[in-house]
Every structure is written in structure tokens, then in C-alpha cells.
Amino acid sequence: MNFVWLKLVKPSIGKLFWTFRVFFVTLWHGFENIPLYLKSKLLFFSDIKRALSRLFVNPYRHTYLYGITPLKTFDRILKTFYLEPQSHFVDLGSGDGRLCQFASIFYHAQSTGLDINKSLIEKAQHLMPKMSFLHQDFLTFDFTTPDFVYFFATGFQDLEQLQTKFLELKKGAKVVMVSEKLTSNQFCLWKQLTLPFVFGRANVYCYIRR
Fold it and tell me: Are 180 and 174 in contact (CB under 8 A)?
């Protein structure tokens, strides 16, 4: 799963409703993932461990809000925008590393995950010790090596600064943005999709570095 972290206001009834909605929608997506689990026991057992670790954790007790990318949706993204084997995949806001693991197992990518939540990075490192997970701000990351960057951008406050960092990407690198667009003429909008997420449907944009 993928996480985008935002500061929250005080707890409310709306957030409690959202907690239950996320729980039931995530459960539904678990049934959707059965074909994927049949192909990869590693993914299945890793998801079991993730589910158990979150069993008594309410995400709204923390100071960040997360956005989830269902695996079925993520698979559609990687197929449509073509994540090539052995390419360097980077997930900005990687949470517990689920998307990085998926890209590695099913697309044979070299995955790197970044997140500002230290506990989630530690959890990802524990589940997948051979992958690279960094407790790091996106704006300090070296973007000269990635071939494919995925970012669940909803509500991100420093998009202009991040876009400037994206200029470090090599020519031909792909940037996939959920719900937000890039405005620099150094990026060409290649393809666009509208796909289901936990909160509803959203636009997904794939840009190529000129």
C-alpha cells in the first residue's frame, strides 16, 4: 500500500466514519487480491503480517493521514504506463512498502521506498530486508537514478518544490501522479487514467521527462 502524509486537525465524527470506510473497503480489496495471492505466496504472507500489525491501530491517532492504492489499481497503472523489468522504481510515501514489494515481485523492478514516518519505514525494512526503504523527506532525495516514480499526490503541500526536484530525473524517466498534475514544460503528459481508490475514483497522470 501506498501512503501520503498530511497534518490533521482534531479528530471528528467524519474521521471516525472514514476509519470504518477504509477498513471495509480494504477488506473488499483483500478479496480482489486473491488472484495475485495465488501467484505469490510471499505477497500473501506479507499482507497477513501487515494486517495483523494494524489490527489495533487507528491511523487517526497519529498526526498524519494516509492514502491507499489498491493492488488491483496499482497493477493497472504499472501495466498501462509500462514499468520495465530491472528499472529503478521509486514510491514516494511508501508506508509499509507494499507497492515496492508488488513492483519487485510482479514487474522485477528494483524498488526504493521513501516515507517520513519512521515506524512504517522500520516495518517495511523488517518485512523486506533486501529492499531499500529510506526515512527521508522527498525534497532531499537524489532523483538522478529513478526510471519510474509513483506519487499519491492528493493534498501534498510542496508540489512546486517537488516538481523542481523532479528536474533531476534523467530524460525518458516516468512520473506517475495521482490526482495532481505537473505544470513544468520539462514534462510531457503521455497517458491519463481514471481509476478506483479507497476514497473513490481519481485521475492518474503519467509524465515523461523531456
Answer: no
pLDDT at position 64 is: 56
Q: Which residue has the cell 523532479?
A: 166
Q: Between these two residues, 46 and 26, which has the higher pLDDT value?
A: 46
Q: Is 41 exposed, middle or buried (0-12, 13-18, 19+ CB in 10 A)?
A: exposed
Instruction: Say if CB 168 and CB 161 are below 8 A apart.
Output: no
Cα–Cα distance between 159 and 127 in angstroms, integer? 30
- pTM for this model (two decimals): 0.81
CB neighbour list of residue 134: distance below 8 Å, 6 or more residues apart: 112, 113, 114, 115, 121, 141
CATH topology of domain 13-209: Rossmann fold (3.40.50)
pLDDT in tens, 153-167: 988 888 999 999 999
Burial grade of 61 (CB within 10 A; 0-12, 13-18, 19 or more): exposed
